[in-house]
TrEMBL record:
Transmembrane regions: none
GO molecular function, one term: methyltransferase activity
The protein, known as: HIT family protein
Residue intervals of the HIT domain: 36-105
Assigned EC number: 2.1.1.-
Keyword Methyltransferase: yes
Listed GO biological process terms: methylation
Pfam families: HIT (PF01230)
Key words of the record: Methyltransferase, Transferase
SUPFAM superfamilies found in the cross-reference section: HIT-like (SSF54197)
């Protein structure tokens, strides 16, 4: 996993949380939604098919496990998992916990209003909560 660098826009719009076996896990800087991004640490990967079969399986496994933990820990009405990449071509997967009545409900979160950045205390609290949530998922540590 050499030469991996997250796209500059992902770095600008999010904060690192932890490293999973395949992906770097980041928190989007928008306090309106619990919104995570998984970025496979594979240089040059743009599409899911740029990963080998095992890595493709691992990507969706990590997204599903993180999403389940997020929904169980924070509650919510719907979990959105998506890989778009129209603005940022580097392969990445969004995991967004949605609640009825949130700022974009029922539409997609992209392009809805202005992001509400975390303040330092809110960011630290959310990151700590995410790390605690992930500690219980042994399957994430399996490589």
């Amino acid at each position: 996993m050499t030469d991996f660098t997250p796209d500059d826009r992902l770095v600008e719009d999010s904060y690192p949380v932890t490293e999973l076996p395949l992906c770097q896990l980041r928190l989007m800087d928008d306090a309106r939604y619990p919104w995570l991004v998984l970025i496979p640490r594979r240089p040059g990967a743009v599409e899911v098919f740029d990963l080998d079969d095992d890595e493709q399986h691992r990507l969706w496994q990590e997204a599903g496990l993180v999403g389940r933990a997020l929904k169980e820990a924070l509650g919510g009405d719907k979990l959105n998992i998506a890989s778009l990449g129209n603005l940022v071509p580097q392969l990445h997967v969004h995991v967004v916990l949605r609640r009825e009545g949130d700022a974009a409900w029922p539409g997609p979160v992209w392009g809805q209003g202005r992001a509400e950045p975390y303040d330092l205390d809110g960011l630290a609290a959310m990151r700590d909560r995410l790390l605690a949530m992930l500690e219980g998922i042994d399957a994430l540590r399996l490589g």
